[in-house]
Amino acid sequence: MSVRKASQNVSNRKMSLQERATYQRPSRRPTIESKRVSISDGQDCVQLNQYKLKSEIGKGSYGVVKLAYNEDDDKYYAMKVVSKKKLLKQCGFPRRPPPRGQESVQGQEPRVLGPLERVYQEIAILKKLDHLNVVKLVEVKYCELQANGGVLGGCLPVMEVPTDKPFTEEQACIYFRDIVLGIEYLHFQKIIHRDIKPSNLLLGDDGHVKIADFGVSNEFKGSDAQLSSTAGTPAFMAPETLTDELQSFSGKALDVWAMGVTLYCFVFGKCPFTDEYILALHRRIRTQPVEFPDTPTISNDLKDLILRMLEKNPNTRITVPEIKLHPWVSKNGTAPLPLEEEHCTVVEVTEEEVQNSVKLIPSLSAMILVKAMLRKRSFSNPFEYLARKERSMSAPGKLLMESRDGLNTLHKEFSIKSD
Where is the segment annotated Disordered (predicted)? Predict the structure, then answer.
């Protein structure tokens, strides 16, 4: 079965932005908590429950993101599989996140979370968010010993950077308007994303961009987050985060800068500041003015918006409400975006919800399977990999031999039920 790619044809969008302004969306369905995991080996993929795992669409320090086809609803999703072992190496101890205590207030830096704690926070946040331009957490699969798996409503990244096929200005405008609404919604929920970039923007089957990956996001109280730590992808970091001086900076302004770099990528296929050396890249971001290539030619309104978003001084950088009113975004007022109150409603994530963000599926067999997948950065048949080894350092010999003896019956689905 061929993999259906998300269309970039703007005519496929199911609803115009103007229609959405008056559209009352139904409440989102609760995230599915998988209490049963079944694994089977297909001809061209591994299948987890109803999901056929296809091509890799992203990877990071702790895991991979796979394109997953759901046979039940005939839709594609992004499945994020996180290696708990790698997270525990960063954390230093295998436990649930401790209570966060007093939450951050205006002007106070929130407590720095460890990698494992961030996973639980990300799951808890995604369970509650409900917006057309923010990815939905459809299902959570969890194994206490090894990995977290999240099925996200979305498909392929909107763009891979660099590329020699950037978007037309019309395409870029439509996708960017989605990003603006998604970021306004997150800021309304008092969440700073901190890692906006094309690879964290998924293009759904409905033709709309979905903001994904909340692994380094920050929650705040008050009107803005005052941050002092660096996070995110170097080429998308704002200049105020790259100074040697200890200072706090606006979280909202960080997201606006990253949106500006993303918009530049949309129309030129590359980042505005690049260098193979990280310190040289930081220096360019801090000091080098934005330059526009001769081709493709873009409008003066678009140039003005990019320059205002990539303003070095965060105090004079354009804000999200101002971006919504910019002539390039609003098409000179003929296509205004919905007001904040028309597409934003408050959700809150409690400490209890973070603690209960995942449910245990005690399954050593599933853990070994996922571990093999992560080690290889591949979702090909992992038992072929296990069979080539006489012993596994992560599994008893008896269990491994049982897996080898079962190679002839891999086409039969086996189930692992929680106790």
Answer: 1-35
